[in-house]
Write a structure and sequence with these properties.
By secondary structure, the chain is α+β, with helices and mostly antiparallel strands. It has one helix and four strands; from the N terminus they run αββββ. It has a domain of about 45 residues. The strands form two sheets. A two-stranded antiparallel sheet has the order 1-4. It has a two-stranded antiparallel ribbon with strand order 2-3.
Length: about 70
């Protein structure tokens, strides 16, 4: 439960400063000292600025209407 609260705090901090974390899932959350740390910021960036990792798979079918897709 404390980990969830820490992740929520981190997300609020990011969003409050105009950033998004685009890959929030269990493998990108580390447990540290009774809390949590986000890792893998390849999909993170400023709100409204599309950013794709260099190793993105261009063979993946993107959903219709996806903005700024590569």
């Amino acid at each position: 439960e404390q980990i969830i609260e820490r992740v929520e705090e981190a997300m609020k901090l990011l969003h409050g400063n105009g950033f998004v974390f685009g890959d929030l899932r269990a493998p990108n959350i580390l447990r540290v000292d009774g809390g949590a740390m986000l890792i893998d910021f390849d999909w993170a960036g400023k709100v409204g600025e599309a950013k794709y990792p260099l190793d993105i798979n261009f063979e993946v079918n993107w959903a219709e209407g996806t903005p700024d897709r590569p």
